[in-house]
Protein: Aminopeptidase N
Organism: Undibacterium parvum
Amino acid sequence: LTIFRKDYIAPGFWVDTVEMGFDLDPIATHVATRMTMRRNHDSSEKNLVLFGETIKLLQLRMNGVNLKKSAYSIADGKLTILNAPDVVTLEIETVIAAGKNTSMSGLYVSNGNFFTQCEAEGFRKITYYPDRPDVMGTFTIMLRGDKKKYPVLLSNGNLIAEGDLGDGRHYATWEDPFKKPSYLFALVAGKLVCQEEKYKLKSGRKVLLQVWVEAGNLDKTQHAMDSLKNSIRWDEERFGLELDLDRFMIVATSDFNMGAMENKGLNIFNTKYVLANPSIATDVDYAGIESVVGHEYFHNWTGNRVTCRDWFQLSLKEGLTVFRDQEFSADLVGTETGRAVKRIEDVRVLRQVQFSEDAGPMAHPVRPDSFVEINNFYTVTIYEKGAEVVRMYYTLLGHDGFRKGMDLYFKRHDGQAVACDDFRAAMADSSGHDLAQFERWYSQAGTPRVKAETSYDADAKIYQITLSQTCPDTPGQSKKLPFHIPVAIGLLGADGKDLKLQLEGQTTTSNNTLVLELTAESQTFRFTGITQKPTPSILRNFSAPVVLEYAYTDEELGHLLANDSDPFNRWEAGQRLATRRLVKLTNAVQKGEELELDAMFIEALRATLNDTTLDPSFREVVLTLPSEAMIAEEFAVVDPQSIHTARQFVRASLAQHLKSDLLSAYENNLTPGKYSPDAVSAAKRGLKNVALAYLLAWPDDATFMLAKTQFDEAQNMTDRLAALSGLSNFSGSAKNTKAAAQSLQKFYKDFKNEALVIDKWFMLQASAYTCDVAKVRELMKHSAFTLSNPNRARSLIFNFCNANPARFHAADGSGYALWAELVIALNKLNPQVAARLARSLDRWKKYPQNLQAHMKAALQKVAETKKLSKDVLEVVSKALAS
Ligand code: ARG
Ligand code: ZN
């Protein structure tokens, strides 16, 4: 079942042109395909190989002649034609039961409309085809369908013809001028409406921009349109990359496995990343839309114009495009702190989700060596760690150096399907920087640990830092070789200011921050002219995806939190102070000891909270404690219940001691007037709502009323949801608890026609500590719940299994039993979604014996299920083998 990177063979045949005609019908869509192909003489594959799955083959003609059954074979999803001539025209007719396709891969129906999702291997569910990214052709598509049911007919590229067919049906013909791999093919057909605009590019050329949605949602498309225009402008300005089509379309569907898809000229999106207006979307939603619209748009160059040779190279496009969308969002905020807060948010996800993946049974390199099901490898490692790898080039080469590398990459590879090594070569050749060892970031899995040790020689005025690196074993990989790690460092004086840095033996001009290049297992760096013992600020702006170990004292961390010129490390110092306490308190909970929070920590947070020279968004992230999942990473054996208790204790203690400060922060950060999602207003709401959440952790009637009033009078979803979240986590007097429950009901009633808001309603309940397994089962019976819609399944089930650890890991194993039931149910409906849920038990070996036993039983139950998809099988068998 396993496919290996080392087995790559170039395709036996290339495709030049592809013409397809679709007769759209949910029961039986007929697809007629004609493609011209020619032999690749450089390949060792002599046969003509096409892939096909779940489709019925009606006709197969080669060079005008019907192929007899004996001329080809079909086995294991492959159609092989033996002895094909060097130049071939193939004509294929297939039938698809799109209406019955619940996998949301290939051609499927959602709410009566047709959509496609072809990445990674969905095109083979449409026709037999060399469905691999290194085979690129020029596509012309004719769509035919009922005029009333499918008034809108869309595909990639430009609309070249449309008209009536006379029999109640009509047609549209689309031509994509760029050759592309089949995974970028898309069609959309149905009842949709659009917001559109003519937009002028920097070059003066005008393009048509459209955002397509179901009727009734046109009041929710403005932000996506704005985000698209911002994306177009940003890519022109930052990378000199222009939109290459005359028309660019975004279409939203409520049934989608992932966030969105970059099909050439016809991006298809989950509604979650398109629809927004102040009454249904939060600030976080607005930011998510901006970044996903950007991400898909940026793929037009990094992914579409230059694509991947094979799926092992997936991070070539995904890591790079995530880096680009991160930079886009950071540039749009504009301020230095805004940038840093964006960086902090990205690093949080990396640490919480990717570091955990890297330490578990599904750990894999950024460029994997093997997989069973490629859909399982759209991971935080490929995406987020991949983006960190790209960011390290940026850190090593600098802003202009990186741009030169990008320019060379496009100059060399535009129109090609290439590998991660080609990107690295462009970065190396354009800069002259030796990046040979840097390759290990692609080939070795696992999160490196960098240990720092320092010493100061007052007489010689030399400050010395020794950095050593190790990397834990991962499945199939032991004995890692040293990585090439950029370690950005600064040294703070007693006054909190940066010292000028001069490396011994180097003539470069002195600087506040230096990027040290750690390439050996251990290396010592010496700074000269240091007149006082400094506090080191190491790994500034998180310059590499590693765990940094350094024996900071509380005083040093306090000094960094109060002064570091690098806002990332300033935040980091606060997180280190918090983590230390949370670990100690978790141990104390387990031992039944009395819990206490020290004044030093409380005062450090008070100072930050009250420092109005700091941006509210920065104060918000400093005030936010590491999540329960983050704290869990600190333990060899995880006890979710004790972690929860310890964290709640810290929240309540802070609330108690900082009550008046929190109340002032609340009052001082109100945003009266018309809602705007801009960074300044969003930051204020963020800080205000964090203050509110704290106040509710040490509640009295007045703070309860504050939340209740905010809920009742909110003018936007951000404030409404924040208040409701506080209320639904509320435990206090019976009267208040009842009022909280009523608010939850009112919210449902008010928004029952807004699917994305009902998702929030489920999500909020699923992740509240008040929600146990029985409560989830009760919510599953709610008329609004369904497993068939991925967003809805995620909102209740995934949130419970992933974001409510203290309840999911119930001692009796009932959480895991529920998990097994649902993985099995989803496996039948939608293997991709099932496999995502299956990952919730990845780290089962980290829990106490009694929980492990329950988890193992649940994993085995799933593994023994008949007709298990490759997707789920890969995940559970890797977990069980760990
Ligand atoms: N390329 C898409 C994106 O990153 C994601 C597609 C994922 N598809 C899948 N079947 N796993 O924007
Ligand atoms: Zn992507």
